Amino acid sequence: MRVVGKPLPKVDAAAKVTGRALYADDIALPRTLHCKILRSPHPHARILSIDTSAAKRIPGVLAVITGLDLPIKFGILPVTQDERALEHEKVRYVGDPIAAVAATEEEIAAAACDAIAVEYEVLEPVMSIEAALQTPKDERIQDYGGPNNVHKFVALEFGDVDAGFSRADHVREDVFFFQGNTHLPMEQHSAIATYVDGKVTLWSSTQVVHYVHRALSKVLELPMNRIRVIGAAHGGGFGGKTDPFAHEIIVCKLSMITGRPVKCTLTREEVFYAHRGRHPVLMWVRTGVTRDGRITAMHFRSALDGGAYGSYGVASTFYTGALQTVTYDIPAYRFEGCRVFTNKPPCGPKRGHGTPQPRFALELHLEKIAHDIGLDPVELKRRNFVQPNTRTVNWLRVTSCGLEECTDRVIDASRFHDRERRPGHGMGFAISSYLSGAGTAIYWNDMPHSEVQIKVDRGGVTAYCGAMEIGQGSDSVLATIVAEELGLQPSDIRLVTADTDTTPIDLGSYSSRVTFMAGNAALEAARKMRALLVEAVEASGRGFDDVTFEEASVLAEARFGTLTTAGSYTPPKIAGPYKGSGVGPSPAYSYSACVVDVDADARTGLIRVNKVWIAHDVGRAINPLLVEGQVEGSVYMGLGEALMEEQAFRKGLHKWPSMLEYKSPTFLDMPEVETFIVETIDPEGPYGAKEAGQGPLLPVPPAVCAAVHDALGVWIDEIPVTPEKVIEALRRKEKGEPPRYGPQRFPPIPYPPTIKVEPPPKDAAITAI
Amino acid sequence: MYANAVFTLSNKDVNQLHREALRDVERVVLTLDVNGEARQLLVPSHKTLLEVLREDMQLTGTKHGCELGECGTCTVLIDGKPQLSCLLLPIQLQGRAITTIEGMANGSDLHPLQVAFAELGAAQCGYCTPGILLAARSLLEENPRPARDEIREALAGNLCRCTGYTKILQAVELAADRLR
Ligand code: FES
Ligand code: FES
Q1: What is the total count of domains within chain A?
Q2: Residue A183 and residue A350: Cα distance in Å, rounded?
Q3: Are residues A559 and A625 in the same domain?
Q4: Which of residues 213-272 of A touch B (CB under 8 A)?
Q5: Measured from the CA of A185, which atom of ligand 2 is nearest?
Q6: Within this chain, do residues A460 and A413 fall inside the same structural domain, yes or no?
Q7: Fewest C-beta in 10 Å: which of A195, A388, A524, B59?
Q8: Cβ distance A200 to A220 under 8 Å?
């Protein structure tokens, strides 16, 4: 291959290193108005009245709107349409939007927000999972779900779990907690809208123009053909810009009212309230193993603190139980999940969506089992690795799988088994897996998940796709695939992406789906175009390789007229035959293995990460430079989550909605990372490629905890691993108590009876069901 | 604290709000030297350099992540030294040389740091990139052969959420090699 597999610069690199890329807040249209949003100061309250009359009288204020102007509810999942762009009945977290102002100056808009009088009836806030399970003092946060503040239950059982436990020689139970954290993109969310001739155009820093398009159509009551959504240059998402947001709807409405462009850029504090980040999850896991370490059965329970609204929460809940089986062969598996509403900013998808928390619990739990039965943890895990081309007990189809090779690479490179033994030094190992795009769409439909068009004329090649470049390199992947097929360089391909007027639909940059799905669509479109060019050249009596691309395109244009081709990708129907089987299936899974080397100071509790080795099975690296970048970025974010990042609350308020107090790793905190790219050439990925952007985050937190145990002999069963927790665990160890810091118990949760699902037959076909 | 009570959030005197919003903002005439060009401006004296660059001079290459001095995204060079433009008032900067990302390339020729960042994939979303490039340029002008820890130290005030910093460190080293 000529360009696939080469470490070429990103196609948008020049725009990014010169400051020329236009992010949403950089876009200034003539007569643009500034928008500010009034937000709730209370975590839970009924709104008795909103008086905007004084605000409207302030000169320079052109419009003030409340929930009465945007009463229709929306939400990312069809089953949880529970949000309003502005609330006029009830607020559910500090930061919930209530009113919005468009004014000629930002200061005037802010003063107008101050002039809006809101009367509240303050309600008792619900701030923890335990509290959400109790009868509310005043009233429930949402009027659906239940009992109490429960949002969603899941209870599934695959195979005979009780029989599995009775076969076990050793059974162990553990409880873990993963604190919530947030994406913290460097770019604050921003959106700017215009309204001309009955048509709204919105530029936004979103990860999914299509979902914003759908939400706008619903709430603004405009047909989709009257709305255009364009993805501006994107300053970082990590899942945090995947929901449709209130400010996106608000600027459209305000521009419809005022007839002028309206822009809203969230302050950093508001970004913490927009959130949709990592769910805090409490987990209980029980596993049975034989004497030689083979898993006989597993029972996993999760309780997710969802915040005030649904967001992606139903999917997140399923994800806390779905992928355990994709790394380990678990013959019988019971999963009970529960998401609750609390009076906090809503949680949603963050890099790894719902799976880093159970991955942390599972890896550490198996580590402890290995210690119990006197087996090397790496060996215990290896004995249970899934095999390629199998189906898991919960019907997930595993095809290419580089788990063994990933493990070999990091274990060998780190000399894990010959590690230096000195006080306070330790190493930890963990593995993981992630989807290359969800196998089912968020809203039910039979249409493709990604579509690409290609146009060729005497002026060159243009590719059109709804996919959104968010820094991960989606534009470069598209250009590379088209260039490879047409015999060009990626820089020769013009791209039009993420614009609902001009590009065919792609479901967006989330769920690690772009390379696999948009990549396959691009491959199909490019191969069709190549066939046209070849046919025209051969008809002229020459060979495709004997003419220049320009000559070929002129011959083809003369022969066929306008040259356009299209390709699309629809994932195979591989979900199992049970309700809830839509979360978990993916056309391919990536695999990662990781070793972390730490020095832990028993006096201060400080953990210093010396080095991380990580191997990632990406199927095929379409651009190894970008794959490494995704892996390194994932390791960085995993270390931040493992050691410092937490979205925590005190008395209904976010403890630290600022970048200074919300700790994230700096240049000084980041250790050396040695990355190994493992290629397994997936049978269905474009050129064999799978995902790279999320999976490598997952093994990092449990590997850190395993390394801390190796160093100090204490278990930290709660993320993040802060110095106080280490010190407390050491204190307990010294006093002869269990040498551990973490949750003491898992609360009694009234899960419904489990739905029993027959596992797939042993010889189940791995092709579509 | 959360007993059922009725609160009114805002009792601010509306007339006072009128006055605040309409208050006669003091405007000053300034001459700023930005990227070697002298520019005369009439700006409210309380506006930050970040705002003046982006809103009054259309130099939108300078980004913002917090506007509170916490993230380094808005870094520009003042007389060659990195400073946070969200914390500076232009009124203090007359006669000083201000360099933004737009002034980093020489015409269409990119600075070796820009080339290295592009080649090594050191810019993913690119939002932190202008600030980091300028801070790195200042470092290399002072210390043409920085050790890796010296680069870390010099860039520690600039957060990046995408790259994990590794490729940025490699790119600064590559540019330093080429600049020698
Ligand atoms: S914008 Fe964050 S430091 Fe200036
Ligand atoms: S490249 Fe995205 S924040 Fe640095």
Answers
A1: 3
A2: 7
A3: no
A4: 233-236, 238, 267-268
A5: 3
A6: no
A7: A388
A8: yes
Q: A7 CA to chain B: closest CA distance, Å?
A: 8
- Write out the E strands in A199-346: 199-204, 227-231, 262-265, 281-289, 295-305, 333-340
CA-closest residue to ligand 2 atom 2 = B125
Answer yes or no: do A33 and A115 share one domain: yes
The mean pLDDT value of chain A amounts to: 97
Residue A552 has pLDDT above 70, yes or no: yes
A16 CA: nearest ligand 2 atom: 1
Per-residue pLDDT band at B23 (split at 50, 70, 90): low
A60 close to A289: Cβ distance less than 8 angstroms: no
Res A767: pLDDT:
56
The residue-averaged pLDDT of B27-42 equals 96
The bridge status of strand A150-158 relative to strand A333-340 is antiparallel
Task: Report if residue A149 sits inside a domain.
Answer: no
Range of the domain at A483: 447-569
Reply yes or no on whether the pLDDT at A23 is more than 80.
yes
Question: Do A411 and A455 have their domain in common?
Answer: no
In DSSP terms, B29 is beta-bridged to B42
ipTM of the complex: 0.97
Q: What is the pLDDT of residues A521-543, one digit of tens each?
A: 999 999 999 999 999 999 999 99
String of DSSP letters for A305-336: E--SS-TTHHHHHHHHHHTHHHHB--SSEEEE
| Separation of alpha carbons A670 and B160, rounded Å | 11
Q: Are A614 and A660 in the same domain?
A: yes
Please report the pLDDT score of residue A642 as a whole number. Answer: 98
Q: Is residue A426 part of a domain?
A: yes
Q: Are residues A192 and A317 in the same domain?
A: no
Residues A250 and A342 in one domain: no
Mean pLDDT over A115-132 rounds to 98
Residues of chain B with Cβ-Cβ distance to A115 below 8 Å are: 10, 12, 14, 17
Task: Work out the average pLDDT over B30-55.
Answer: 96
pLDDT at A151: 98
Q: Which of B43, B125, B148, B170 to mutate to test the interface with A (most CBs of A within 10 A)?
A: B125
Residue A491 sits in a domain whose CATH number is: 3.30.365.10
pLDDT band at A505 (very low <50, low <70, confident <90, very high): very high
Residues with CB under 6 A from ligand 2: A 186, 236, 471; B 123-129, 160-163
Q: What is the pLDDT of residues A232-252, one digit of tens each?
A: 999 999 999 999 999 999 999
8-state DSSP, A624: H
pLDDT tens column, A662-684: 999 999 999 999 999 999 999 99
With a pLDDT cut of 90, the percent of chain A lying above it is 98
Does one domain contain both A212 and A338?
no
Q: Which of B48, B52, B67 to mutate to test the pocket of ligand 1 (most atoms within 8 A of CB)?
A: B67
**pLDDT, mean of residues B160-174:** 98
- pLDDT (tens digit, 9 = 90+) per residue, A319-349? 999 999 999 999 999 999 999 999 999 999 9
B13, closest residue in chain A (CA to CA): A115
Instruction: Walk me through the domains of chain B, giving residue ranges and CATH numbers.
Output: 2-103 (3.10.20.30), 112-179 (1.10.150.120)
Rounded Cα distance between A221 and A200, Å, is 12
Tokens at B75, concatenated? 């870094």
Contact residues, chain B, for A653 at CB < 8 Å: none
Among the candidates A543, A569, A595, a domain finishes at A569
Nearest one of A104, A103, A125 to A116, comparing CA atoms: A103
Query: How far from the centroid of its chain's Cα atoms is residue A699's Cα?
Result: 15
Give the residue, out of B125, B133, B134, B165, with the most ligand 2 atoms within 8 A of its beta carbon, to mutate for a pocket test. B125
A650 touches chain B (CB under 8 A): no
Residues of A in contact with B109 (CB under 8 A): none
* Domain containing residue A96: CATH number: 3.90.1170.50
Domain boundary among A569, A593, A614: A569
Chain B residues near residue A12 by CB distance under 8 angstroms: 126
Residue A247 CA to residue A192 CA, distance in Å, equals 9
Q: Is A328 domain-assigned?
A: yes
